[in-house]
Amino acid sequence: MAEGEADGGEDEDGEEKPAEFEPKGTGVNKFTYWVSHQSFGAWTKLPDLMPNDIEAARQIKVLFSGNLDRTIFTNPFFFGKEKHYLRAQIARISHSTTLCPVGLFRLQEDSTKEIEENAPEDGDLIKPTTNQMSKADMWCHH
Fold first, then answer.
1. Segment 64-104, tens digit of pLDDT
2. Are 114 and 104 in contact (CB under 8 A)?
3. How many CA atoms lie within 13 Å of 37's alpha carbon, on the beta-carbon side?
4. Is the peptide bond between 128 and the residue preceding it cis, with omega within 30 degrees of 0?
5. CA distance 7 to 108
6. 99 and 140 Cβ atoms separated by less than 8 Å
């Protein structure tokens, strides 16, 4: 698996997306992922998701077959192929395991979902010592 970050912009396929779709470079589509069976084999780009795809992936358990175009049959129903389920699980794992030092980021004033670097007006951000960073309360989820 490989991960990349897009700056946003138009989608390659050019088709109309639903209103709740988060554009490339934001939200659940902040990162783009590619997968391959072998490191020197062909790489396949995984599709972008909608937030409800991740919610649906939380509710089901499915074994991966390696066939990205396989239809998944579950209860509750999952609207997508194995590539969508894989992409949703990668997003869930990535989000759950990302930690940042407290104070490094803050929420943007005009959005409750987007974050930005915390650049104080009074100069540089004071960096904590290694000893301070060894405490659990100095870390938060990104």
1. 999 999 999 999 999 999 999 999 999 999 888 888 888 77
2. no
3. 6
4. no
5. 17
6. yes
Spans of all domains in the chain: 2-96, 100-141
Contact 1, 33 (CB under 8 A): yes
DSSP state of 125: P
Average pLDDT over residues 16-33: 86
Q: d(Cα 105, Cα 109) in Å, to the nearest integer?
A: 12
User: Which residues, including other chains, have CB under 8 Å from residue 39's CB and lie 6 or more apart?
Assistant: none
CB 110: neighbour CB atoms within 10 A? 6
Whether residue 115 is predicted with pLDDT greater than 80 in this model: the reply is no
Q: Encode pLDDT of 36-64 as tens digits.
A: 998 899 999 999 999 999 999 999 999 99
Reduce the DSSP state of residue 59 to 3 states and report it: coil
Backbone torsions φ then ψ of 22, nearest 5 degrees = -95, 125
* Burial annotation 92-101 (CB, 10 A radius, 16+ → b, else e): eeeeeeeeee
SS3 breakdown of the chain: % helix, strand, coil, rounded to 5? 25, 20, 60
